[in-house]
Amino acid sequence: MSESPSPQRWGEEHMIDLGALGEPAPAPGPDPAPGRRLPRIPNAALAYAAVAVALAAAVIAAVKWSPLHRPVAESTVLDFLEAVHEGDVEAALALTDQQDAEGPFLVPEALDSSWAITEVEQVAYEESDKGHANAQVYAEIEDLDGNRIGHRYHVVVDKGEAEIRRPMIEVEAWGSLDYLDLNGVRFAIDLDQGPAYIMLLPGFYEFYPDLPSTMELDGSPTMLALGNKFLSIEDDYVDTWMPTPWLVVSQEGEDGVNAAIREFYDACAADPEGEGCPFAFPEDPDREIELAPGEHWEVVSYPEVSADRLWYEHLAGFTLESSVAGEARARVEITEDGETRTALVSCPVWVNGLHAAFDDEGGFVIDPGDGLSEERCRAVVEIDE
């Protein structure tokens, strides 16, 4: 009987053959080869290997989330927004079905880069029986203060090519003045021709950025636009109507209006027949009044207006209302019952019906407007001297 050698030798093995007793034993065979031992890897090498594996995983993750691996609809919307942000209007419109769109604000000068793209993600995808697919891509942008607005873009994918459908809508362009100013680009508005419509690319817009210090805006002066939505930033609401703010005067503007009023009535005192001057005498069938020879009106106190009573009327200026009435006096001749006498009379002065128009430097000029201003004293009261 014989045994096979063990895989590892712990001592010398002997071969015994019971049927061959008395015969010389055969010479022992060669020792078996020693077992294989795994090489020892230093700890530093293991650490380097771990770093290499981690880097490889990071590269795989980066490739997975890189723009090269986005769905074509998603990458097209991202390219569109990036082109707008860089001011490349032509490249942006080329990715849409509105590549031939024109308008006063579809120019690089009307674009402000004070915003960022925060999210672009395909959220729906559906194959069409017409051989193309319809995708919905959600996009979100924010201004430098973190205010955000989002919109879903409709993207059509055909044979691997994507086109954004109607990324811009027409909105009614009305302005506080006879023009709309966005980011320093002006668009004239003529209300006699009916409403005008404009289209806006995504981004940040400031209304009337070059207003003089005599005027300010009642409402948010800035907005974010994206798709068919507008975020009025300071008022913090989103609407599908463009939130154009209203124009009001500042405290400095109120001072300027009152200064213009004083100049206007001083001119009226020198020439009572001037347009809009309120110094004609009221009609009275029982007596006749006229300025005494060599006399003229003197304004002893001027009417005043306050800013909260001012509002802008398109193409006319700020409508004026008196917060405090003024007073003018003059020495007159009064003929009554066939007799003439002289008297000092007082005439109250009101600004109602006048407008404060302004020039490019922010100064004001009093305008009689549509002729509804008072051109006669409401009453003439004799003053005891």
Largest sheet: 5 strands, antiparallel
Structure annotation, total helices: 4
Could you estimate the helical fraction of the residues in percent?
10-25%
C-alpha termini separation: 159 Å
Averaged pLDDT: 83
Strand proportion: 25-35%
Characterise the protein shown here.
Strands 15, 16, 19, 20 and 23 form a five-stranded antiparallel sheet that branches. This protein has a four-stranded antiparallel sheet with strand order 1-2-3-4, with helices on one face. By secondary structure, it is an alpha+beta fold. A hairpin with a 2-residue loop joins strand 6 (179-182) and strand 7 (185-188). The protein contains four helices and 23 strands.
Give the tags.
single chain, 385 residues, 4-stranded antiparallel beta sheet, 4 helices, 23 strands, disordered N terminus, DUF4179 domain-containing protein, transmembrane helix
